[in-house]
Design brief:
6-stranded mixed β-sheet; 13 helices; YojJ-like (1; RNA Polymerase Alpha Subunit, Chain A, domain 2; about 475 residues; rod-shaped; alpha+beta; 7-stranded mixed β-sheet; 21 strands
């Protein structure tokens, strides 16, 4: 087991580390940007479906696996289409720094006491008002945009917005954090039949928006000065400022309990980062390691560090078969020139030498594991290199044309130096030229030929030409009965 672990760790490439780290960080950033939104909840559901699909595929549930794949593909498309406004809102409200590496700590910025005092002042003055407190849902597709405001909340500002001579007082004011972002916003009217008959347009608009989104809407009645809160399908009568304060606190995330400390928030972010790393590592292991692919390649053996005084006479094999494994993507990208099998001959002696091929003799691309080498043992025979001067003889083949005879043939030089293994040269007394066709000779002349060195390990020695000049004389054959 430890050996397998070591092999596994050695097979990890630096690209794999970067791959895991980069995707873990991207997943963590998606959590930071979209936590608490419907987009994040839907993505979490898609992730769960993907895990179930992998489990189904692993245990051989073919139909179930394909069904989950179809659902995941459809769900991913739905996320892009349905939540495009919410995604755009999240990205537009954050700068590049916040998107890439900023950490947003959720803090309560809404000045609830100022809002409660302002609302009850409007109630005392019988001044109608409509205040919208968005949550996660994007309101743009449900409302008609009013006037962009982005003013900081104050009692005077709220009273002036809903002053009866103000052109925007009949519309709603949208409040996010400590800012009034929009005023004069037109809300959709509810079509419910169970609303009280004395509810006017403001109440029906509040109910209409609350029914379709997760926003909380506060209504101040112009006729009766009453305060009601609409959220979901509920319309709640507010009887005093304490009840309104609690409703706003519950909606914006503040309650009677202390606000979560920075330490607790840091713990959540750290846990999210850790889970992102393990999740991406699991995916990487599933694709890069779980789906192991085998391949067999024939690789030539390279002999290194041979003494210049010795020469290789014979080897038991020239190529070895390597059985390799790795992820399908890596295996498909392997090229034979990326793999080397090298044997060190620095300690080889004259005669027969036996070498065992070990992983140290083999160079593999990162991420590829060696399973087996065939053959694992190679015999190499070496001998001392020597130099010998040998005569050259022409190697004629074929026949001269009819009526011609070869009177003489001279090779220049007559002898050349040959360098090769001592054991080989001791058995050779003559060096022949390459084959010379007699059929093509019609008259005297000369040509250039090369020596035919066999075995191929033989070389022409220094100072000797590697091309030989052949001068030949051809005469007509005398008629029969005439002396030559």
């Amino acid at each position: 087991m430890p050996y397998d672990l070591i092999l596994f760790l050695n097979s990890i490439r630096w690209q794999d580390i970067v791959d895991i780290a980069l995707n873990s960080y991207i997943l963590f950033r998606l959590y930071v940007l979209f936590r608490g939104t419907n987009v994040f909840r839907v993505l979490a559901g898609i992730t769960l479906l993907w895990i179930l699909q992998r489990i189904a595929a692993a245990i051989g549930l073919i139909v179930t696996s394909y069904a989950f794949q179809g659902i995941i593909a459809f769900a991913a498309l739905i996320v892009i289409i349905v939540f495009k406004n919410e995604i755009r809102t999240v990205l537009q409200t954050k700068n590049i720094k916040t998107i890439l590496w900023g950490l947003h700590y959720k803090t309560i910025k809404t000045p609830i006491e100022i809002l409660v005092g302002s609302i009850y002042e409007l109630s005392r003055l019988n001044s109608g008002a409509l205040l919208v407190f968005p949550a996660a849902d994007d309101l743009e597709e449900f409302t008609q945009r009013g006037i962009s405001w982005h003013g900081q909340i104050s009692k005077e500002m709220i009273l002036s917005i809903f002053w009866h001579d103000n052109p925007v007082h009949d519309g709603a004011a949208v409040i996010k954090g400590d800012r009034i972002t929009d005023v004069g916003v037109i809300l959709p009217l509810s079509k419910r039949n169970d609303l009280p008959s004395y509810y006017g347009t403001r109440h029906r608009a509040a109910a209409g928006l609350a029914e379709q989104t997760d926003a909380l809407v506060v209504v101040v009645s112009e006729e009766r000065g009453e305060v009601v809160v609409a959220k979901g399908n509920r319309i709640i009568d507010i009887h005093d400022n304490l009840e309104l304060e609690q409703a706003l606190k519950d909606h914006v995330g503040e309650s009677a309990e202390p606000v979560s400390s920075r330490k607790k928030e840091n713990f959540r972010l750290g846990l999210a980062a850790l889970l992102s790393f393990f999740f991406v590592s699991g995916i990487w292991f599933s694709f890069a390691r779980g789906l192991e692919t085998l391949i067999t390649l024939e690789i030539p053996v390279e002999y290194m560090n041979r003494s210049p005084k010795m020469q290789i006479l014979e080897t038991s094999v020239n190529d070895v078969s390597l059985n390799l494994s790795g992820s399908g993507t890596i295996i498909k990208s392997i090229r034979p020139e990326q793999i080397n099998v090298r044997l060190d001959l620095s300690k080889a002696v004259v005669g027969s030498n036996t070498f065992t091929i070990t992983p140290e003799n083999i160079t593999l691309p990162p991420g590829v594991l060696l399973k087996k080498v065939t053959p694992s043992v190679i015999n190499v025979t070496l001998d001392v290199t020597m130099e010998k001067k040998l005569p050259i003889q022409a190697d004629w083949i074929g026949k001269l044309p009819e009526g011609l005879i070869l009177q003489s043939a001279v090779l220049t030089p007559a002898k050349i130096k040959i360098v090769g293994a001592r054991n080989v040269l001791n058995k050779i007394s003559t060096i022949y030229t390459e084959k010379i066709q007699l059929d093509n000779i019609k008259k005297s002349g000369e040509m250039t030929v090369k020596p035919a060195l066999s075995p191929a390990s033989l070389k022409v020695g220094p100072g000797s030409p590697d091309k030989i000049t052949l001068t030949y004389v051809v005469k007509n054959r005398p008629p029969a009965g005439i002396p030559k």
